[in-house]
Request: fold
Amino acid sequence: AGPIVVSAGAREGRIVVVVSDCGPGVPQETLEQIFDPFFRVEASRSRETGGIGLGLAIVKSCAEACQGSVVARNRQPAGLEVQISLLPAGG
Reply:
């Protein structure tokens, strides 16, 4: 629901990419699990109705392979924000 906003900038010597939406967010207790391979917030979803649960696991793996990190948080009043933090090239 609503726009997806992507922004990037430098913060504390790192490159930070932020992707946010205006959807319902995810239950607080599942915020860490969304980066687990094959995890779906809605167990009723199937491959035909919502992917296989690998997208954010791949994002996390790639970020960590580049000495970076990725975190998610719920936005207020609604939405999800995923922040990817990376070292600049040559850093």
User: Anything to note?
Assistant: The longest strand covers residues 5-11. Residues 55-65 form the longest helix (11 residues).
